[in-house]
Amino acid sequence: MAENNTKKTVSTSTVVIIVLSIVIVLLLVFGTILFFIMNSNKNENSATVDNTNSQVVAKNETKEDASSSNGTANTSTTNTQPVSTGNISDDWKDCEFIFNNKAYKLYFPYSDLKNDGWSFDLADYGYANGYVMNPGNKVSGTISLENPNFDSTVRIGFINDSNTIKDITECNIWSFEVDNAFVDDDETPVSFTLPKGIHNGSSLQDVINAYGEPKDSYRADSLGYWNYTYQDEYSKYFRLTIYDDKGVTAFSYDMH
């Protein structure tokens, strides 16, 4: 009789163990399936976000204030074609300059610079898959251009002054900066000519004779240079860096 009770107990325990084992296996299988489903959804969402950042209309992280936006609206019909080589206005407010023997007038298309060997990599700014701009959007003048034939610093800012969404490389330039200050003697600087004949190497007095005293100036005594900023209300800015020993080394134009 005792032996039969023992067999029943053993049999019951075995059944319980088997049932628990089956439950555990089912939980593991279910958990594994759930993990793969969640991971797949996560990857899909991540891909969607990446695609959105590069292909859907981009939010402009450098939107100008209300006054700048109004300025953009008023200048959206500006001629975007380069002016004739060598012929630029004597008035800096016309935003014309000669860069490497070619004349430009803001706004001008980025393709003009690209055709002359200047380029940039969007991946350096976190947009390896491309970047599009809404009508009226701007990207600040911090995009650095490179050209294997020159060693100067060249920076640009983009504006979509059209009525359609465009890839950034199809947009125009509203901000242009050149700096030759740190080009070594064995390197190649770009050349530039500004209104009234001011160029790389022009003296401080040359600048004053051409444009007068600026409303805004900054003196860096320890480094031996001046920063001159000429301003036309709040829509156009013209900046020059003039060293005591090297003369004009840099300029920039901004046209809002």
What general outline do the C-alpha atoms trace? elongated
Strand residue percentage: 25-35%
- State the secondary-structure class: alpha+beta
N→C terminal distance:
102 Å
How large is the count of helical segments? 4
Rg, rounded, reads 32 Å
Low-confidence stretches: 1-8, 40-85
| Helix content class | 25-40%
Say how many strands there are.
Answer: 13
Order of secondary-structure elements: HHEEEHEEEEEEHEEEE
Count of domains: 2
Mean pLDDT: 81
Largest sheet: 8 strands, antiparallel
Secondary-structure blueprint:
Layout lengths: L1 H54 L10 H9 L21 E4 L2 E4 L2 E2 H6 L16 E2 L4 E8 L7 E7 L6 E2 L4 E8 L12 E2 L10 H8 L4 E5 L4 E8 L3 E8 L3 E9 L1
Structure description:
By secondary structure, the protein is of the alpha+beta class. It has two domains: 1-56; 66-255, no CATH class. The protein has four helices and 13 strands. It has helices at residues 2-55, 66-74, 110-115, 204-211, and strands at residues 96-99, 102-105, 108-109, 132-133, 138-145, 153-159, 166-167, 172-179, 192-193, 216-220, 225-232, 236-243, 247-255. Strands 3, 5, 6, 8, 10, 11, 12 and 13 form an eight-stranded antiparallel beta sheet that branches. Strands 2-1-9 form a three-stranded antiparallel beta sheet, with no helix packed on it. The protein has a two-stranded antiparallel sheet with strand order 4-7. A hairpin with a 4-residue loop joins strand 10 and strand 11. Residues 1-8 and 40-85 have low confidence and may be disordered.
